[in-house]
Amino acid sequence: MQIPRPDPTAISRPFWDGLRQRIIQVPQCDHCDAWIFYPRRHCTECGSRRLTWRRVSGRATLHSYTFARVATLPAFAELPLQNLAIVTFEEGFNANTSLTGMNADDIHIGMALEPAFDVIDEQGTTRLLFTVANIDPTR
Fold first, then answer.
1. What is the CATH topology of the domain spanning 57-139?
2. What stretches of the chain show up as alpha helix (H) in DSSP?
3. Which range among 12-21, 65-74, 76-85, 98-107 has the greatest average pLDDT?
4. Residue 136 binned pLDDT confidence (cut-offs 50, 70, 90)
5. What is the rounded distance in angstroms from the CA atom of residue 74 to the CA atom of residue 48?
6. DSSP 8-state code for residue 99
7. CA nearest 101: which of 76, 79, 77?
8. Per-residue pLDDT tens for 59-91?
9. Domains of the chain: which residue ranges?
10. How many other CB atoms sit within 10 Å of the CB of residue 24?
């Protein structure tokens, strides 16, 4: 069974198009500077409809996580565990995601993460996952 594909709307399409290019872009309010994730037509802080898509770093911190030992969908049944997570981007907003490329014993709240772009079909549809950050002191 195939991994579920996103069904981009006019509002969310820039996010999904960015992931195809390994770019994370999120709307930011032009009035109060709040980041709006998940994408919406208006700012969740001040109600403004003046939003601009901006590129974000992708660096994040693990805020919370759990292991789903029973698949959340049949497409994930072959995975031994689903590592479901909430990450806090360096820019200050949270996102739901999954973790990849790490052992369960190495996962801990507060750990530094970086994006892992998972291409799931021939059309280039890409999921945003996170993995342990390769800490480079020159960044």
1. OB fold (Dihydrolipoamide Acetyltransferase, E2P) (2.40.50)
2. 13-20
3. 12-21
4. low
5. 40
6. B
7. 79
8. 999 999 998 878 788 877 777 678 899 999 999
9. 12-56, 57-139
10. 22
